[in-house]
Amino acid sequence: MSAPPAASCVRSVLERIHRPLLADAHSALEAVRSADSSIWERWGAAQYVEHELVPRWLREREALDAVLAKTARDEATLLWSLGELIELLSGELGELARLAQSGATFAALVDKLLKALECWCQTIECAASRVSSQVLPREAQARLAELAAASAFEHGRAEPAVSA
Fold first, then answer.
1. Could you give the maximum distance between any two Cα atoms of the chain, in Å?
2. What is the arithmetic mean of pLDDT over 125-129?
3. CB–CB of 7/129 below 8 Å?
4. Structure confidence at residue 156 as a pLDDT band (50, 70, 90)
């Protein structure tokens, strides 16, 4: 099945959003991916996840509701379950950050969170490749363009905002 003509545009917008999102997450969480990280490193990582990563991801997730409505049921179910897993793991990290002896468990949860986020990004990009931007409501197109512009701005890229 080939992608609708404008669908590649939606996918490319998502890829431009996801590359820096995933790079930032890996960079911010690298120090706590080992069992010997300090409680202060874990606390900082939990704060990053709670106050930066999850809100950034949730803005995108909300903007993509229109894409989800146009995807196959299996794909929508997978995306929903990955989203729930991301929310669950991020909450668990906040709880574990308070425990002094949780380095190994925290590291394992961080790895799972990063993998879930990578899978979510890959799956929504794949779904978007089969959805034409013309079927998305104007509000969803505008939100995607805002997210892409914000991502480019945050990372010092002078890319023009692309209409989804």
1. 53
2. 87
3. yes
4. low
- Structure token digits, residue 5: 């003509």
Q: What is the pTM of this model?
A: 0.84
**Which helix (H) or strand (E) element contains residue 110?**
helix 103-128
pLDDT in tens, 74-110: 888 999 999 999 999 999 998 888 887 788 999 999 9
Is the four-CA dihedral 159, 59, 20, 67 of positive or negative sign? negative
Q: What are the structure tokens assigned to 86, written together?
A: 């991301």
Q: Is the dihedral of CA 83, 65, 162, 53 positive or negative?
A: negative
Give SS3 for 164. coil
Distance CA 160, CA 153 (A): 10
- Residue 136 DSSP label: S
Q: Which of 125, 134, 159, 121 is nearest to 12 (CA)?
A: 125
Nearest CA among 158, 159, 118, 157 for reference residue 25: 118
- How far is it, in rounded angstroms, from Cα 102 to Cα 68? 36
Amino acid occupying residue 87: E
